[in-house]
Amino acid sequence: MKEHETNTKDGNISRKDFLSLTGKSVAAGAAGSLIATGILQSDVLAQTSKKAVSPPASIPAGVEEPIVLEAWKSDVDQQSGPTPTPLPPARRIRYAVVGLGHLALEEILPALSICKKSKLTALVSGSPDKMKKVAAQYGIKTENCYSYQTYDQLKSNKEVDVIYIVLPNALHKEYVIRGAKAGKHILCEKPMAISSRECEEMIEACNAAKVKLMIAYRIQYQPHNRKVRELVQNKTFGAVKYIEASNSQGSANPAHWRHKKALAGGGSLPDIGLYCLNTNRFILGEEPTEVFAYQYSTPGNPLFAEVEELISWQMKFPSGVIASSSSDYNVHESRHYRVLCEKGWLNMDKAYAYKGQKLQTAHAEGKMEKQEEIGIAETNQFAAEMDHFSDCTINNKRPFTPGEEGLKDHLLMEAIYESAREGKPVKIIRNAGQGTHGAEPEMD
Ligand code: NAD
User: Fold this and answer.
1) Which SUPFAM superfamilies did the record assign (predicted)?
2) Which residues carry out catalysis?
3) Phi, psi angle pair for 358, to nearest 5°
4) Residue 135 domain-assigned?
5) I need a labelling partner for 66 at 20 to 30 A (CA). Which of 97, 267, 371, 407 fits?
């Protein structure tokens, strides 16, 4: 069933079904007015079509048929969502997480606990004390705990299918290549590396080892951003003309690797500006042909002795869209974008945050402007991206955000730095080809 087909006979959806599908993030009172617009209805229909997980078109030899549970709704609990369809624990894809820093401890390990197709079975860390505590907390066997020196021994560990690299950017290449040589599929944090050349080596190594490589672009698995992509590519508000995007935050510790060029590769651009760059490409579905940039770092501020503070750049797309983006390491947190279309606009607050996305639209209705907020149930972005990679591993699919997506972004970031340095626009001669996305993720 396609996303906009409905499973009701007359194509409409009952109020009871609506309430049970929208989940807690949409208040029942607001639902009536939103459904009248037809915008939220498409969300509801999209969710309706996903009540059960569709089996893959073909199941490779040795892979068991997926278990598909019937959707079940209680008469008394009208707010219940779609029936979850987790894989049995024994059939989930097993992850080794490499690097137990901020992101791994606060987001990735907790997300693995709520995944439906993925689970944590091994850890890699340079800190034995920390790893011992984390292993005890998550029930990881001592023999599945590795140091950076013993990392290659993962090759003989039959309890690991995927290695997730969550290290400083400059270490991604080494650990991706060593992981591929160990015969494991690789999920790698963004930015993919610190140069396009490194990205190419990582892709080559994974191809040579016949393992999958996915870059953890979590926004592309986030439902509000996916909804914007759908509305934009369907031209719901007419053609897009201009995008304004910003991802900015404060930073306080000049000793952190993010402020060391050799480990980070750059400053705010590869760390947070990358979200604007990558999300613009994702929602438009096209590749920029030219960029123009400025950058600035406050003189004497030790935070920016090696990497840039602020970078602002424009990208020109073949359809005529111009996207203007910025990232800054020295301002109060602000993560948003606005898409200006012929007959309306879309505005996303907290666009690149871990949660709290707020999607508003406006469009002309006669002489009136109609503004509304599109309510979509939140999901855990990390769990969604890991379950997508697990699905690709189980069903032998190309990941939606493969290594080539990371390479494209690095080629663009190199052009953005060149433009800022030279003070002139830079044409994008090479963009790692068109159509590098893999299989669309199944979203709940
Ligand atoms: P962090 O500094 O909190 O953790 C990095 C880990 O790497 C630490 O455990 C540290 O001990 C270890 N490490 C190993 N070798 C090191 C070395 N030579 N120097 C410094 N640390 C070393 O960083 P983080 O915020 O967890 O970021 C890790 C990766 O995740 C980065 O690539 C970052 O861009 C990415 N990230 C992604 C998101 C996202 O939303 N997808 C968010 C934050 C970070």
Assistant:
1) Glyceraldehyde-3-phosphate dehydrogenase-like, C-terminal domain (SSF55347), NAD(P)-binding Rossmann-fold domains (SSF51735)
2) 190, 275
3) -130, 110
4) yes
5) 97
The pair of structure tokens assigned to 121 is 């079975």
Q: How many Å apart are CA 390 and CA 387, to the nearest integer?
A: 5
Q: Is residue 48 part of a domain?
A: no
The Cα-based distances of 197 to 202, 414, 431 in angstroms read 9, 11, 13
Task: Report if residue 268 sits inside a domain.
Answer: yes
Residue 151's domain comprises: 86-216
The closest alpha carbon to 59, from 31, 83, 91, belongs to 91
Which ligand 1 atom sits nearest the alpha carbon of residue 263?
Answer: 19
Q: Find the range with the poorest average confidence among 65-74, 217-226, 303-312, 353-362.
A: 65-74
Q: Which atom of ligand 1 is nearest to the CA of 105?
A: 26
How far, in Å, from the CA of 270 to the mean position of ligand 1?
13
Pocket test for ligand 1, best of 103, 222, 271, 274 (most atoms within 8 A of CB): 103
- Exposure of 16 by Cβ count < 10 A (0-12 exposed, 13-18 middle, 19+ buried)? exposed
Residue bearing tokens 């369907």: 234
Burial of 88 (0-12, 13-18, 19+ CB in 10 A): exposed
Ligand 1 pocket check for 194: Cβ under 6 Å: no
Residues 247 and 182 in one domain: no
Residue to substitute in 109, 163, 166 for testing ligand 1 pocket (most ligand atoms within 8 angstroms of CB) = 166
**318 and 417 together in one domain:** yes
What does the alpha-carbon distance between residue 152 and residue 299 come to, in Å, rounded to a whole number? 43
In a domain, 279, yes or no: yes
User: Per residue in 223-281, pLDDT tens?
Assistant: 999 999 999 999 999 999 999 999 999 988 999 999 999 999 999 999 999 999 999 99
* Residue 255 and residue 127 share a domain: no
Residues 174, 288, single domain; the answer is no
Strand (E) or helix (H) holding 326: strand 322-328
Is 209 found in the same domain as 294? no
In this model, does residue 164 exceed pLDDT 60?
yes
For ligand 1, say whether the CB of 198 is within 6 Å of any of its atoms: no
Q: Locate tokens 């197709």: which residue?
A: 117
Q: Does 35 have pLDDT greater than 60?
A: no
* pLDDT tens readout for residues 121-139: 999 999 999 999 999 999 9
